[in-house]
Amino acid sequence: MRTKALLLTAALSAAGVATSMAQVYSVNAVGYVNTVLHPGFTLISNPLTATDNTLAGLFGGGKVPIGTVVYKYNPGTGFAINTYTDDEVFAPDPTVTIVPGEGVFIKNPTAADVTVTFVGEVVQNTSSAHVVVNIPQGLSIRSSKVPQAGTATDLGLVGGEGDTLYQYVNKFPASGSGYTISTIQDGEWGPALGSLKVGEAFFYKAVTPIVWDRNFSVNSQ
Q1: pLDDT per residue over 177-202, tens digit each?
Q2: Do 30 and 43 contact (CB within 8 A), yes or no?
């Protein structure tokens, strides 16, 4: 309970926790992405649509060390916490899903980097709709559904006046990790954000609900 409270406080104050990301080896209809989990906390997304987007499907089967903890933030109720146990299952709920556009904290309990490989389909336009991430009012964890790196502007994230994006910069093994915070003022992000990596999630605080709309097709890139 104390850990949960500390994480929620960190989320709300934008202080604490770590992110390190990804290399993309294929940006086709089907591909894979390697994401590095440094020791301690990381803020990541599921950048591809897998055949099984549950915790068990994404991280089970020995893909992460025993003792790994996943924290999924639910606006209004806080973090749902699941731990990878000695029985190699996530408890209490291995059916929790992480789909493209969402994000989670993940805690690597070891002293070494761990690489997680995501395999699945690249999200792209359908015949009737663009790629959309719905961002609710208030605080949430979000990510690009499209496996591309770039600034928020590069990735087509057009927020509302007063919206704030919290990007965690992981400086492991050096000290000084922390959030880079950018707010929309007079229609511009300021201060300017660095590039968001493939597989990186971030906190977003929206003044009003927004729709992150991407016109994306693999064949047109």
Answers
A1: 788 999 999 988 999 888 999 999 99
A2: no
Torsion angle of the four alpha carbons 113, 46, 199, 174, in this order, in degrees rounded to the nearest 10: -30
Radius of gyration of the chain (CA): 17
Residue 154: which of 101, 193, 200, 202 has the closest Cα? 193
CA 36 to each of CA 85, 143, 178, 182: distance values in angstroms, whole numbers, following the listed order:
21, 16, 18, 25
pLDDT tens for residues 71-112?
A: 999 998 999 999 999 999 999 999 999 999 999 999 999 999
Q: CB–CB of 82/90 below 8 Å?
A: yes
Q: For the chain, what are the domain ranges? A: 2-121, 131-220
Q: Return all residues near 212 (Cβ < 8 A) that are at least 6 apart.
A: 132, 133, 134, 135, 142, 156, 157, 158
